[in-house]
Amino acid sequence: MTEKTAKGPASYFPSIEKKYGRPVAEWQELIRSSPLTKHMELVGWLKSEHGLGHGHANALVAATLAEGR
Question: Smallest Cα–Cα separation from 11: which of 68, 50, 55, 66?
Fold first, then answer.
């Protein structure tokens, strides 16, 4: 049986959870509760306040905003 491979921002999720020790749902809730609204503001905030790398922060923000926060 072939396992379906995640595409787009979701392809980063397993490595995000492994590297930072928090589930993606928790990161997304942080993003949703932030007063920031612009994509790059949120990316910068995740990088500076939570120590995420650019690619991981970008993937989380893109996926969360695509869901409608």
Answer: 55
